[in-house]
Amino acid sequence: MAQKKPKFYVVWRGRETGVFDSWDECQKQTAGFDGALFKSFDTKPAALKAFKEKPHLHIGTTPKAATQGKVPGLVGSPIEDSLVVDAAWNTATGDMEYQGIYLATRQKVFLKGPYPDGTNNIGEFLAIVHALALLHQKGSNIPIYSDSRTAIGWVVKKKANTKLEETPRNAELFDLIDRAETWLRTHVYANPILKWETSVWGENPADFGRK
């Protein structure tokens, strides 16, 4: 993974407002705060200038058609210092694979599969847990993005609620599911698991491009 570039975070609306020099400090002010408004910047002068300006000049400026159904100004931009994961499922063969990329550089961090007789939701679930375990090993609390609400929900509940039937062909996949669920039950992590807002930001960068 490439060395992280410093980021500066402007919080226009949160527990405390101002310019913060770490994602952890930004999260302290915004996580769980209703209507929080914040965005990252590459330089401190840019962040200080933005803080003095109205937040709508920097976030929530996506065309109306793209933000339909969203609360204006609350989506903002994706956090560059993050991992983005996605899965691909071949409808013809039933094979599934998943991968994760570091958003700031688009560097591929991991690629797993293909696994026979899988599903896309299982792949999304395994990708998130794989990212969590990898970042846990590195002592990193950066966010993880997924475009699957189902998979995010499974991770929160620490259980893959799949209806897929286990067969000799996908036995390895079910073993991976068991290991992922065990990891979730036995580890504590601080990484935010966030929804990739495709309608606003475009296609998930970890997408396999096979649609």
From TrEMBL:
Its cofactor is Mg(2+); Mn(2+). It catalyses: Endonucleolytic cleavage to 5'-phosphomonoester. It is found in: Cytoplasm. Mg(2+) 2 binds at residues 124, 147. Its EC number is 3.1.26.4. It is an enzyme of class 3 (hydrolase). GO terms for molecular function: metal ion binding; nucleic acid binding; RNA-DNA hybrid ribonuclease activity. Residues 77-211 form the RNase H type-1 domain. Binds 2 metal ions per subunit. Manganese or magnesium. Mg(2+) 1 binds at residues 86, 207. InterPro entries: Ribosomal_bL9/RNase_H1_N (IPR009027), RNase_H1_N (IPR011320), RNase_H1_N_sf (IPR037056), RNase_H_bac (IPR017290), RNaseH-like_sf (IPR012337), RNaseH_domain (IPR002156), RNaseH_sf (IPR036397). Keywords: Cytoplasm, Endonuclease, Hydrolase, Magnesium, Manganese, Metal-binding, Nuclease. GO terms for cellular component: cytoplasm. Pfam families: Cauli_VI (PF01693), RNase_H (PF00075). Transmembrane segments: none annotated. Endonuclease that specifically degrades the RNA of RNA-DNA hybrids. Belongs to the RNase H family. This is Ribonuclease H. It comes from Spirosoma taeanense. The lineage of its organism: Bacteria, Pseudomonadati, Bacteroidota, Cytophagia, Cytophagales.
